[in-house]
Amino acid sequence: MNQWITVCDEDDLYIDAGACALVNGHQIALFLCSHNNTLYAINNYDPIGKANVLSRGIVGSLNGTVVVASPLYKQHFCLESGQCLESAEMLVPTYPVRRSNGSVQVQLIVSLIR
Q1: pTM of the model
Q2: pLDDT band at 114 (very low <50, low <70, confident <90, very high)
Q3: Which of 19, 66, 57, 58 is nearest to 38 (CA)?
Q4: What is the pLDDT of residues 3-28, one digit of tens each?
Q5: Burial call 40-57: b when 16+ CB within 10 Å, e when fewer
Q6: How does pLDDT run across 26-63, given as a tens digit for each residue?
Q7: Strands 65-69 and 58-62
Q8: Is 29 within 8 Å of 54 (Cβ atoms)?
Q9: Are 48 and 73 in contact, with CB atoms under 8 Å apart?
Q10: DSSP-assigned letter for residue 89
Q11: For residue 42, what are the CA distances in angstroms to 11, 31, 79, 91, 114?
């Protein structure tokens, strides 16, 4: 169940702005960052503000770390690791993301618990 899922065309994304995609029941925030032309995919749920809003956050960099600032309380989440820079115990899931023939694809890693 670790297949790549096409969520949009790369042209659908705006540089340094987020977009939200519903992928198998999960809200995924997608970002295309201008300073390194890299795609990032994190869960859209802000665990501090308790709302699905991270795709509406402001993209930037703090001390060389690519982040999105939550639009609610302005905490910064690392787009690579999902770690909150202000609250070390807070973490949002990140997802593998890639370009494929002009499309953006994400991979939901599903682990089976027995």
Answers
A1: 0.91
A2: very low
A3: 66
A4: 999 999 999 999 999 999 999 999 99
A5: bbbbbbbbbeeeebbbbb
A6: 999 999 999 889 999 999 999 999 999 999 999 999 99
A7: antiparallel
A8: yes
A9: yes
A10: T
A11: 19, 9, 7, 10, 26
- Please state, in angstroms and rounded to a whole number, the distance separating the CA atoms of residues 33 and 105: 16
Q: Transcribe 12-69 into DSSP letters.
A: GSPBT-EEEEEETTEEEEEEEETTTTEEEEEESEETTTTEE-GGGSEEEEETTEEEEE
Q: Which of 2, 3, 33, 4 is nearest to 17 (CA)?
A: 33
Residues, the chain, total?
Answer: 114
By C-alpha distance, which of 30, 34, 28 is closest to 13?
30
Amino acid type, 7: V
